[in-house]
Amino acid sequence: MKVRECTEKDKRAILDILNEAILNTTALYDYKPRTMQMMDRWLDAKIKGEYPVIGVFGDNEELLGFGSYGSFRNWPAYKYTIEHSIYVKNTMRGKGIGKILLKEIIDSAIRQKYHVMVAGIDTTNEISIKLHEKMGFKYSGTIEHAGFKFGRWLNLGFYQLILQTPQKPVDG
Fold first, then answer.
1. Taking Cα atoms as reference points, which of 27, 95, 20, 81 lies closest to residue 51?
2. Whole domain around residue 14: which residue ranges?
């Protein structure tokens, strides 16, 4: 497996992984598959915000999973806090790809001098919760009935990791 930053040429594979998760899981509280136009806007926002999109690729350059992050909230005082997401191709889950991706985005967040990483995880997603806990994330609370999908209410658990950066945070 190879780890690298995703590029424009990976958009279709990213879209396919996201859409499978939308249609079949509670990893995203979304109903309808995304379009390529939506993916273009998403990737443009990542580039403009200097947020990485990191992928794990198989021997034939097949995207096996990806992770990224973005702003947690859009007010200035949240500038050191990010929210991340990790998605793994359905046929590759349980093979350690999520762990590789989470480590890579943590390392990227440290390099970019963020202070807090937030994960919003559906409370039934025990595998993701265990992965985050193994990587040092602490449970921060649950918003009950935060979403409604597949005919039931969904509870969204929050987990956070406090990083030792930046060394000298500033207001403004």
1. 81
2. 2-162
Rounded Cα distance between 2 and 127, Å, is 23
Q: Which residues, 6 or more positions from 48, have their beta carbon under 8 angstroms from its beta carbon?
A: none
Enter the pTM of the model. Answer: 0.93
Residues 6+ apart with CB under 8 A from 112: 50
Query: What's the pLDDT tens digit per position in 16-53?
Result: 999 999 999 999 999 999 999 999 999 999 999 999 99
Rounded CA-CA distance 130/147 in Å is 22
Residue 135 DSSP label: T
Domain presence at residue 93: yes
End-to-end CA distance of the chain: 41
Q: Are 155 and 142 in contact (CB under 8 A)?
A: yes
Q: Which residues pair with 82 in a beta bridge?
A: 71, 117
Residue keyed to tokens 């990587």: 135
* Tally of domains within the chain: 1
* Amino acid, res. 76: P
Structure tokens at 167: 């060394």
